[in-house]
Write a structure and sequence with these properties.
By secondary structure, the chain is of the alpha+beta class. The protein is built from eight helices and four strands. A hairpin with a 2-residue loop joins strand 3 and strand 4. The protein is globular, with a radius of gyration of 16 Å. The chain starts with 9 loop residues before the first strand and ends with a helix.
């Protein structure tokens, strides 16, 4: 039961692709936002694998498996830190990251084979396309889409401005 005096967190959707170097650079802003707002800001990873990156779709599925195993963001951050290695090694790199984080790598392998997370990834991608996401990272807060693919410059400040306004209401 939720205390009615506890405000609901502001939701920030981050449309991300785990083989995207720009998304790796965007993590600095995501970490700063988390540090500033704590549980008053719910940062949700939304998948938007791009066709130009061969392993992005598998990485999105692996991130869903990591979330199921309780380590969604740590896994995402570790994979993003290794975008070059993901490009070179593909799925073996995804399984290695899982092992390094103490996750069940066999279950990751099975999830990638049986496709249990395909619907979640496809749903995110379809929703992203429907709201005009064309690249990553893209942020959505309070219905406003902020595209960060070309430059992150000023995006964190814009997100903070919107979050501050929403949290003050």
């Amino acid at each position: 039961m939720t205390d009615s005096t506890t405000p609901r967190p502001v939701v920030l959707d981050v449309w991300c692709e785990l083989q995207c170097p720009d998304c790796d650079r965007a993590l600095t802003d995501v970490r700063a936002l988390r540090a500033r707002y704590g549980d008053r800001l719910e940062v949700r990873l939304r998948h938007f694998p791009l066709e130009k990156h061969r392993h992005a779709y598998a990485a999105a599925q692996a991130a869903e498996e990591a979330a199921d195993q309780g380590s969604g963001w740590p896994y995402v951050e570790a994979v993003l830190a290794g975008t070059r290695e993901l490009t070179q090694r593909g799925e073996p790199f995804l399984l290695e990251v899982a092992r390094e984080l103490g996750l069940d790598a066999e279950e990751f392998d099975t999830a990638l084979i049986d496709g249990r997370h395909l619907l979640a990834v496809d749903a995110d991608q379809a929703e992203g396309k429907a709201i005009g996401v064309t690249g990553t990272p893209t942020y959505v807060i309070d219905g406003e889409r902020l595209d960060g693919g070309k430059s992150q410059e000023g995006l964190r400040e814009r997100i903070e401005s919107i979050a501050d306004r929403l949290l003050a209401d």
